[in-house]
User: What shape does this take?
Amino acid sequence: MMVDWFYNEYLQHLLESLVDPKKRVSFGYLIFAAMIGLAWSAFMSRNSWRNGFSQGLRKLFGKRVLFSRSARADYKILLLNHGFLLLITPFILSKVALTTSLFFLLHEVLPSGSAYFSSIPFWTVSVIYTLFLFVLDDFSRYIVHAALHRIPFLWAFHKIHHSAETLSPFTVYRTHPIEAVIFTFRGIIVQSSCIALFVFIFGEKVDLVTIYGVNVLLFIFNLSGSNLRHSHIPISYGRALERIFVSPAQHQIHHSIKRCHHDKNFGAALAVWDYLFGSLHLSEKNMHLTFGIKNRSKMRSHNLATLYIHPFVEAFREIKVLFRKHEEIKKDIINVT
Amino acid sequence: MCLSKLSLANLLSVGLLAIASLMLSISAQAGEKVYGKFPVTLKGYSGSKTNSVSYTGQIARHVLHDSLKKLAAKGNGKPNPKLKSLMMSYYSGKDAGRAIIAPKTKGSFVVKQTLVDQISKNKNLSGKTYKGTISGMPNNMTGPELVTFWIDKASSANKGVDSRNGYNYPQLISKFIMGSVFYNQAVDNYLDEKLSATKKPNNKPYKKGAAYTGKEHSWDEAFGYYGVPAHGLSFSGKQLYLIAKQKPEGFSIADFNGDGKIDLYKEMMFAPAYYAASYDKSNKTSYGMNISNAFLDGRRLITSANGEILSDSQRSQLRKYAAIIEKNWQMTLAESVFKYAGSVYKDLKKINASMADEKDKTKKAEKAYIKHWGELKGFSLSLQTGRTKLGGDTAVRLNRLIGFGPVMPNSSQVVDIDSNGNYVKDQSSGIEEYMLHMLKVQKLMIDKFNVKARKNDQLASLDQMIEKLGDSSSAEND
Assistant: This one.
């Protein structure tokens, strides 16, 4: 039974996800990212392009990067989380159920929308829907990411991601299972609301503009080297463009241990949210960044048990602090009255 | 000249050959799966019959139903006792000499019979209509009372349509009879009680002097109510559809014995089988094939008993075939409820979108709305006339969502029928709310029956988009 599940579910799903263009870390995107990374290193090299190219190779595929303690922990976490997600998915809120409920709710609170938009052509609806979904998805990622940093008991879980000291595309999966649940809920809520709203307004005209079955904008984002954000190649887009799109260098700043880089660049694809809410940090020339978290933290160990269990201890501690503060405020109010 | 004569002769012979091979291929195709003939197995039978299959009464009722539907659309908007009496003669009368009003010869699709009696005598529909209370309509009417009430209303409506209250009587009567007579009689009588050990045993004639046993005829009668041509069991949904619609292409498929005429008893397609075929055309379902195969397998099993009483295991197997028939027939009705709830939703969307100055467009949309609502209501009531009467809260929810009448563009809706048979109306919560009800009806059919063909699916866009975006579970961090 367990062996069957391992071969038919776990392994098959894992291999499929590595070639699924809907996933950020799939072979196609990784190859493009490597090509972009190497070309950038060669082109930006102060010495010869050959020197830059070989430096790029070391930064991307070097033993110190791909087989560091940090990277090995990334791989183990990826494999464990994959199984965890497969097991919990049936118990998570169904996207079909939520979409249908929201669709019915819209009908209850608003007059039928689709009747009034019958003259809008199909292609316009598809373009608006594709763009709206991409922007809403990206904004929700920003909100969740900012919350994971700024709410202490959530930071306890997100710390596992920031404990990475070497960055590789697989660091994207260095996630605590509690975070995975949060991300899954976020995806379901965003997609369900978007589908329900657009089908309610535009009826059967709603369609997604896709390339290889992926939202065209997401495809472009992934193809243009999104995986390099978790790497040691600091590609910058320039001051103007970095206010709109998050460059790999900006995300590397987000992982930097430096105090002035903390809680900056929460954006996934779009930097406009950071720009609007004051968390933007543009990339600079010759940045020498160190990745990870402060020295005292237990999470630096890269030990799986610690990485998985310690966040619960910290979160519990933070919740206790929160309760204590709440009690103190209550006492203060009673004393004042 | 000589050459052209030769060519013509060649052409004719090639044509004849093609027709002959077509006939042969149809016969060969049908030959594998034909409902009859089955030999007489009854012990001690001394008559001259060699075929034990008989379901003429059921086909006569199909013809009465088709004819009644046509008559229901003949009114001129004024009370018409003559028309009412004629309709009643097709519903509850047993008069001799009743003409077949439908199905009739249509162009090259020549129908053999012109009188109901040529198929079977002394038949009516009222005696076989479900006698229980119809809770989806006011006043606790029984099945026959409801049809009689509608016949009265239809006789004084303009072409059978009451556009003020939103009733299309030909559709209501027809779709309700499909359940309350054909479906109910088949699944709640012949394939239920009459399959028991004590009723209609296989070692005795169904009735005195008959050439068939109790079980043989019970099974045949259920088959007759399904309404598929005896040789059409292996035909595709598309082929059966062509026959039901009396298309010229359907004629060559239907005319099994090649006599140039369609025998309504053996070669014609009637309503229940037609609807099953219409869903099977999508290739998403195989309701018709499942029902036909189960009927044929069941009949072969009974025949194999060779006139002996059926053993427990044989009856148990027969019950399994009956369950397949019941399930697939019920699914066909649920698919119809789903389809017409979608049609009603689309009609209401059009009514909502049409401008005040587009009177023609609005009128057309309203006409379609009333027709589709009649089909929806008729099928939803039919679905409640099965062996289990739908059970649980499904029937209650279905009746509440659809209501006693459609919500009209001015938001009025029939909420009751007074003691004089007049409709009582009230203001409803409006068209938008009613559109939501239609979506809920579709969802109910998905949740309770897991319908697959899903014609006019108004929730399809949701499903397609969900599928397109794929799995949402993700451990990808930022």
In short: The longest helix of chain B spans residues 312-353. The first strand of chain B starts at residue 161 and ends at 162.
